[in-house]
Amino acid sequence: MTARNPTACLLIIGNEVLSGRTQDANIRFIATKLSEIGMPLREVRVIPDMRDVIIDTVNEARAKFDHVFTTGGIGPTHDDITSECIAAAFEVPWEAHPVAWARMERAFRAGEFNPARQRMATMPRGAELIDNAISVAPGFTMGNVHVMAGVPRIMQSMMDTLLPRLPHGTPIASRAVHAFRLPEGLIADGLEAIQKRYQGLDLGSYPFYRPSGNGVTIVAKGPDAASAEAAIAEVTALILSLERSPIQGEPEAGTAAGN
């Protein structure tokens, strides 16, 4: 029997994301990297900088998924409460991490390692550091929860450090085909029939609007590359039967919308 792939959940923490002031730029990077190691991202939640919400959501997610990733809320300001909330979720003290504290103390001139910066070296007892090549302040892992910065460049560097430590499953294969002048309503029944024949795949339909024309992209994803290729071959034949011209791969980036 093939071992199942480990599952993942991403928690995006920050009032600024919920208010619309900041647009999250981390989901695609994290989802892509996790797919490459065979850990599909099954759920993404955006939650506010509220203690009870963070604690409850972390505890719910870490019980439901094999691994939980968080971004945001580990900076030096008063609203950066993710770290202390993780400590509360695991019911351990929130205290100075000896390695992180010493490292950050060395990084600043005398008097500059102030209480605000000390918050970034204060973590749940037992936390394992997640270093990054961009800044001195690390993220950390507690159990199956991995806590990272919200700033994309720093988060990406933390992910690079973290990935080799994570369990790997079968990499998720992705195959796609698209066609212009093809509304979803015209292809829906055929896609449903193909999906039923490939129960181990996720077969998704994504309409697009481009300066060069409108259409739809069909993507097959799953741990079996041969099945993904076979499903897309059937989708290609379906598109041809509808007198449209299938193009392998995905079109250039643009705005997606239903039709």
Could you outline the blueprint of secondary structure elements for this entry?
Blueprint: E1 8-13, H1 15-18, H2 27-36, E2 41-47, H3 51-64, E3 67-71, H4 82-90, E4 94-96, H5 98-107, H6 115-118, E5 122-124, E6 128-130, E7 139-142, E8 145-148, H7 152-162, E9 173-180, H8 184-197, E10 202-210, E11 213-222, H9 225-241, E12 247-248, E13 255-256
Parallel strand pairs: 1-2, 1-3, 3-8
Antiparallel strand pairs: 4-5, 6-7, 7-8, 9-11, 9-12, 10-11, 10-13
Helix pairs in contact: 3-4, 8-9
Textual characterization of the structure:
With 259 residues, the protein is an alpha+beta fold. The chain has 2 domains: 8-165, Molybdenum Cofactor Biosythetic Enzyme, Chain A (3-Layer(aba) Sandwich), CATH 3.40.980; 173-256, Alpha-Beta Plaits, CATH 3.30.70. Helices cover 36% and strands 25% of the residues. It has 9 helices and 13 strands. The protein has helices spanning 15-18, 27-36, 51-64, 82-90, 98-107, 115-118, 152-162, 184-197, 225-241; strands spanning 8-13, 41-47, 67-71, 94-96, 122-124, 128-130, 139-142, 145-148, 173-180, 202-210, 213-222, 247-248, 255-256. Helix 3 (51-64) packs across helix 4 (82-90). It is elongated, with a radius of gyration of 22 Å. Mean pLDDT is 93; it is low at 254-259.
